[in-house]
């Protein structure tokens, strides 16, 4: 009987080892499947957010479209929580001589895609007026 008991024990050990191997194979297959089926993120460009130059261009274009005024240039640019804050100077009224033109400073915020978040006219002044001179 000793031989029969050993044979039974060996068969049980083999079944246990086979079952353990099967569990390991199943776990490996699940990991591989999980890895293969994991949703892939869309490829990100090297620059995920709009840079300062693009933000300024977008702000100038949008102020011109919204106001109908001729943008003179960008006078300030700052990165903020909502996106880029851009100061755009525009000519609201052309006069002769040019030094008497009426300008306006618009504060514009554009998000990282260049979409307008907000804009407002911060001040109006004549071209010959210096910043220290009031206005």
Q: Total strand count, please?
A: 4
Mean pLDDT: 81
Largest sheet: 4 strands, antiparallel
What is the 3D shape?
rod-shaped
State the separation between the terminal residues, measured CA to CA: 111 Å
How do the strands of the widest beta sheet line up side by side?
A: 1-2-3-4
DSSP helical segment count = 2
Structural class: alpha+beta
How large is the radius of gyration?
Answer: 35 Å
Could you name the ranges where pLDDT drops below 50 across 5 or more consecutive residues? 40-47
Helix content: 25-40%
Approximately what portion of the residues adopt beta-strand conformation?
Answer: 25-35%
Could you please describe the fold and organization of this structure?
By secondary structure, the chain is an alpha+beta fold. The chain has two helices and four strands.
Task: Spell out the blueprint of helices and strands.
Blueprint: H1 2-37, H2 52-67, E1 70-79, E2 84-93, E3 102-110, E4 116-126
Antiparallel strand pairs: 1-2, 2-3, 3-4
Question: Could you give a quick summary of the protein structure above?
Answer:
This protein is of the alpha+beta class.
Structural key phrases:
four-stranded antiparallel beta sheet, 2 helices, 4 strands
